[in-house]
């Protein structure tokens, strides 16, 4: 089923994406200045903004994203990956969660640090939630698609199950850009047979009651709703893995 986002929710993405920051290495842009810039490393230049699970022998779920994943403005236990980790424990799923969200990250930044994100422990599931900053800067959808494709291919080559979370572009680059941007995610999900979350902020973007005072990032309740959305895609994967191991 085709996904459509109400215009008000897309407009709300303008400040939201600005709050995600803008890396300096992906080229010039003419859109609004951002709140925070992030220098991205291959090794340690992109330290996640929230906790990373301690080393253990448990399989890992890696969340690769930007400030929405990092939980900017929230307590460390209130980011949506942390909420999902708590749910995994409650449901008896034996996984560690690694929050590899970095404020300001683009799809290119995520690709650059992918090896770093996957280098520790025993990753089994990769949840990719990138693209918001690409849309803010008006970067070509073809570039977004190529970067995300490389991330998915790298994960699948290592035997990880990949879940792709979509993002919407703001409307200031025109309808053709917005529709072309949106189409990247279902096209990749079909090409690589991955689960797809059409829009990571569905039901949250544009709702003042679910966002922080800056109107940019989800508040605690908003993050819980994002976690609910992601859980719908993740739960069947971990349930199937548990059934297969018995």
Strand runs, count: 5
Characterize the overall form.
globular
Our Rg estimate from Cα atoms comes to: 17 Å
Low-confidence stretches: 1-8, 14-25, 27-53
Oligomer: single chain
Helix content: 40-55%
Structural class: alpha/beta
The biggest sheet, with number of strands, parallel, antiparallel or mixed sense and barrel status, is: 5 strands, parallel
> Which CATH C-level class is it?
Alpha Beta
Mean pLDDT: 83
> What is the name of the CATH architecture?
3-Layer(aba) Sandwich
CATH superfamily: SGNH hydrolase
Strand order of the largest sheet: 2-1-3-4-5
Give the percentage of residues in beta strands.
5-15%
How do the helices and strands follow one another from N- to C-terminus?
A: HEHHEHHEHHEHEH
CATH fold naming: Rossmann fold
Distance between the termini: 34 Å
Number of domains: 1
Structural summary, described in words:
With 246 residues, the protein is an alpha/beta fold. The chain has a single domain, classed as SGNH hydrolase (Rossmann fold). It contains nine helices and five strands. The chain has helices at 7-19, 67-70, 80-90, 107-112, 114-117, 132-137, 141-157, 175-192, 220-244, and strands at residues 59-65, 96-101, 122-129, 161-165, 195-197. Strands 2-1-3-4-5 form a five-stranded parallel β-sheet, with helices on both faces. It starts with 6 loop residues before the first helix and ends with a helix.
